[in-house]
Amino acid sequence: MNVNERIKDQLENNPVILYMKGTPDFPQCGFSGQTVQVLQACRAKFAYVNILEDPEMREALKEYSQWPTYPQLYINGELVGGCDIIMDLYSRGDLAKMLADADAVVE
Q1: What is the pTM assigned to this prediction?
Q2: d(CA 65, CA 49)
Q3: Whole-number Å distance between alpha carbons of 51 and 75
Q4: Residues 14-68 pLDDT 10s
Q5: Which of 19, 23, 84, 95 could form a disulfide with 89 if both were Cys (CB 3.0 to 4.6 A apart)?
Q6: Residue 107 scores a pLDDT above 90
Q7: How many CA atoms lie within 13 A of 95 on its CB side?
Q8: Residue 68 to residues 13, 16, 57, 59, 72, Cα–Cα distance (Å)
C-alpha cells in the first residue's frame, strides 16, 4: 500500500483522526497539544497519527490535503483544519456539534 492509499484508508476507517506531532499523551508541539486538549474537552473519540514517526506520510499529507502545517484534524474524511480553526470552532461550540454528528463523543 503506497502512502496515499494509507492516508485514504485511515480517513475511511476513522470518523475522527488527528495528524499531529507526537501523541496525545506526549505532544511534540504546542499546537498539537492544544488541539488534543480541545478534543479531550469535547470528550471526542479520535484516532491519531504521529507524523514525526513517518516522514513519507508527513510530506504526502501536505500535498493530499493542500494544507502545509500540522496538526490536521479530519472529521468524516474531510479536513477541518489546523489548531487555529479548531480553537475557533471550539470557542463557538461548533466543534462539539461536529463531533457529535460524527458519533465520535464518549458517552
Answers
A1: 0.96
A2: 15
A3: 18
A4: 999 999 999 999 999 999 999 999 999 999 999 999 999 999 999 999 999 999 9
A5: 95
A6: no
A7: 28
A8: 23, 20, 13, 9, 9
